[in-house]
Amino acid sequence: MAGLSCSLGAWFPRRRGLGLLLGGLSGRRGARSGCERREERVYLKDATGRYISPFHDVPLYAVNDQVLFNMVVEVPRWTNAKMEIATKDPLNPIKQDMKKGNLRYVTNIFPYKGYIWNYGALPQTWEDPHHKDKTTNCCGDNDPIDVCDIGSKLCSCGEVIQVKPLAALALIDEGEMDWKIIAINKEDPDSDKFNNIDDIRKYRPGYLEATLNWFRLYKIPDGKPENQFGFNGEFKDQAFAIDVIKSTHESWQSLIYNKTERGEINCKNVSITDSPFHCSQEEAEAIVRSVTPALQARDLSSIPGRAKPWASFLTPHA
């Protein structure tokens, strides 16, 4: 299975042999994300081979850079499976969301196909449901903050990339604050051209309007009303976006040190040694073994368009 390694701030895959680990792969995945089955999980490893939590153990800041952040990709662009970090599960694997026993997919909203960006989350952030946002008067949605990567690279489920935030959109989802950070992958060929919201309008004309329209409409096929937005749907600039990120990072710090009500969120981690939720690597391995008892791996590296020579392995969940 392909884990994640960290060397001088750069994340890249390593071959391993258990579970499904897809960090760092850059190949084209096809119409679906490649891991959309109810019994499958995406676990991450670090450079030393430790299982880690994408929510708590992947650092927010990339190499102590105050403008560059790590992003955990949950949903590759153009795919429909609603993959997300399982905040209530130990080690917070990525898995497909379910509702009433059914796997969840987003419906194609004309003229869009699936998610129109690489979609994911910033680790070590948390939108606190007990904290009322001073700008929108809404409480957080109890999840890590969401990110939309507008870069040209098609990423993979579980990949960790470094992104530069450019703007923020205040989505209000059924009364809850659900910030969307608009960012670009630093590996994008045009990354140096993007430094603020005006650069999106200049080099990706129509992308902000499409993003607003997508978030407004995507729940309607499920019988829900249009989503609402703070600031009348106005995108806020980079400085505002970074302030939002820093605020949610502070909320996460209260969470990981047990200084606030966490509800059902699982804060188990292997890297924050002074956290009351810190666990040993032996315990982390036992968690993964408990959901992957049969070491029957299916090699996914032969899927057309997959990045090589890195291989990923899929292990069913009992």
From TrEMBL:
GO terms for molecular function: inorganic diphosphate phosphatase activity; magnesium ion binding. PROSITE patterns: PPASE. Its EC number is 3.6.1.1. InterPro entries: Pyrophosphatase, Pyrophosphatase_sf. Its cofactor is Mg(2+). GO terms for cellular component: cytoplasm. It is an enzyme of class 3 (hydrolase). GO terms for biological process: phosphate-containing compound metabolic process. Keywords: Acetylation, Hydrolase, Magnesium, Metal-binding. Pfam families: Pyrophosphatase. Homodimer. Belongs to the PPase family. PANTHER family: INORGANIC PYROPHOSPHATASE (PTHR10286). This is inorganic diphosphatase.
